[in-house]
Amino acid sequence: MSSTPATPTRSARRVLLKLSGEGIGGGAGSGINAQELVRFAQQIRRINQAGVQLAIVVGGGNIIRGSTFAANNAGVQEATAHYMGMLGTVINGLALQDCLESLGCETRLMSAIRMDGVAEPYIRRRCTRHLELGRVVILGCGTGRPFVTTDTAAALYACEMGVDILLKATRVDGVYSADPERNPHAVLYNQLTYKEVLEKNLKVMDMTAIGLCMDNRIPIMVFNYLKEGNIERAAAGERVGTIVGV
Q1: pLDDT digits (tens, 9 = 90+) for 18-41
Q2: Based on the number of CB atoms within 10 Å of its own CB, is 75 exposed (0-12), middle (13-18) or buried (19 or more)?
Q3: Cβ contacts of 131 within 8 Å, gap of 6 or more
Q4: For 161-174, what is the mean pLDDT?
Q5: Adjacent-strand bridge partners of 165
């Protein structure tokens, strides 16, 4: 009697999208922007329909930014504030999940902190199985530990899942020599090596995240999510921003 393998061989393109809380908030500074949420969800659904295996790490800065909150609120320890920020990522994840499923896209919300009433616990093999079955996986609570950014969480998940590329969605067209919103003479880079990012101290992602991607040869594409269709194009493998690699 022949047997079917428990886990199918991976063949589809697999990507991890790092989506900031600021993006979900629509640049308003706080809260969730319903129009932006729908715009993201529509693109994500089309990516899923194209057969791309997509995992999404969501930030929580539109709900609460832990380090900032601790600095401005005497008596709240920074570790506590970071945990509060992690819970904010789950609020965003729940909103994105329902928005996607209202469009007919099957999803799973997974959390690095156990909260079984609203999300599955993150287990690597279960997560990759969801991807292989065509579900969009939304990852909340970062790494589940304080003092670690969601950028680093995205890099860790990208390494664990063996993704083809990590997509970093930002408000600008890629990686610049300086902040283009403050310096009109900043130069946009087309391509960079990991070492160049570290040596130039470019604000792509935090240095730990860059180091993880460098050690595991995970390319990073930094692109502008505000341009319509850019998330789809990036997920499909089209260059729409700066590539960071070997």
Answers
A1: 999 999 998 766 899 999 999 999
A2: exposed
A3: 14, 53, 54, 55, 137, 161
A4: 96
A5: 15
Angle between helical axes of 124-132 and 150-161 (0-180°, round to 10): 70
Q: Are 79 and 165 in contact (CB under 8 A)?
A: no
Contact call for residues 62 and 25 (beta carbons, < 8 A)? yes
Parallel, antiparallel, or unpaired: how do β-strands 220-224 and 241-245 relate?
antiparallel
Complete domains list, the chain, with CATH: 14-245 (3.40.1160.10)
d(CA 158, CA 14): 9
Confidence of residue 5 (pLDDT cuts 50, 70, 90): very low
| Separation between Cα atoms, residue 146 and residue 169, nearest integer Å | 23
Give the Cα separation of 152 and 147 in Å (integer): 10
Instruction: Tell me the whole-structure pTM to 2 decimals.
Output: 0.92
User: Per residue in 168-193, pLDDT tens?
Assistant: 999 999 999 999 989 999 999 999 99
Encoding tokens for residue 215?
A: 């050690």
H, E, C per residue of 38-59: HHHHHHHHHHHHCCCEEEEEEC
Q: Helices H, strands E: what count in the chain?
A: 9, 9
Q: What residues contact residue 111 under an 8 Å CB cut-off, 6+ apart?
A: 90, 93, 118, 119, 120, 121, 122, 139, 140, 141, 144
Contact of 155 with 142, CB cutoff 8 Å: no
Distance CA 153, CA 26 (A): 22
User: Cα–Cα distance between 120 and 114 in angstroms, integer?
Assistant: 7
Q: Give 165's contacts (C-beta < 8 A, 6+ positions apart).
A: 15, 16, 218, 219, 220, 221, 237
Mean pLDDT for 196-221 is 95
The one-letter amino acid at 221: M
